[in-house]
Write a structure and sequence with these properties.
There is one protein chain. With 81 residues, the protein is mostly beta strands. 0% of the residues lie in helices and 58% in strands. It has no helices and six strands. The chain has a four-stranded antiparallel β-sheet, with no helix packed on it.
Length: 81
């Protein structure tokens, strides 16, 4: 559970471009940002203080080495007030 600030930890290859997004359970994208991999574990902070309490999906998608190759990692966060 979180009250608004969420730490997302993930790993992408060095220089790999990807995206980090927050989605509602209905699939609506509430936040999205570009990320670039460091080749090691990295952490991004999300500010979800404006979102109502509920369950949200957090998704990191990397582009991989080819345009058609992508991989995704997802998780859930429960926002409580």
């Amino acid at each position: 559970p979180s009250s608004g600030r969420v730490s997302v930890r993930f790993r992408l290859a060095a220089g790999e471009r990807g995206s980090l997004s927050v989605q509602s359970l209905t699939g609506a994208v509430l936040q999205s940002r570009a990320v670039v991999g460091t080749g090691t574990a990295q952490t991004e902070m999300l500010d979800m203080e404006r979102e109502p309490p509920g369950l949200y999906l957090i998704r990191v998608v990397g582009n991989g080495n080819k345009a058609q190759t992508g991989r995704a990692t997802s998780g859930r966060v429960l926002l409580m007030r």
